[in-house]
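Hey, quick one: can you model this chain's 3D structure?
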Amino acid sequence: MKKAFGGVGGFALIIGVLLIALPFVYVPKTVSETYQVPKSEVGLQGWTGFAAFASFKNAAKGTELDANESLNIQVNATASKSIDFSVNAVNDTTGDILATYLFYPDVSTLNVDWIVPLTSEYHFVFNSNSLFT
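Sure thing. Here's the predicted structure for all 133 residues.
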């Protein structure tokens, strides 16, 4: 009987010591915080005013892009006058299309994020069946 009380008393003593010592033990923790990083707005070289009020049926604008660049592509056409929009990798000396990476038929608005797959010359192509698009 004395051994049972001794065992219970010893167990209670160990629990008491742990409860007293626990607040003084440092336990590392991880905290997650969410940050919103605004997108940067950098116009491609020579694109100033290109699409402001253009009237064209077929237009392409080219630029050299590096692999893994992140682009946010936004296209806005006149309401109810949709266009075909595509992004093509081209041979910078001959102008031949090597690959079409993006193609959106009949869009009036477009907002898409895109990672450039390889360093190359790219053409951003706008095709329309309507004048004043």
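One thing worth noting: The two ends are 97 Å apart (CA to CA).
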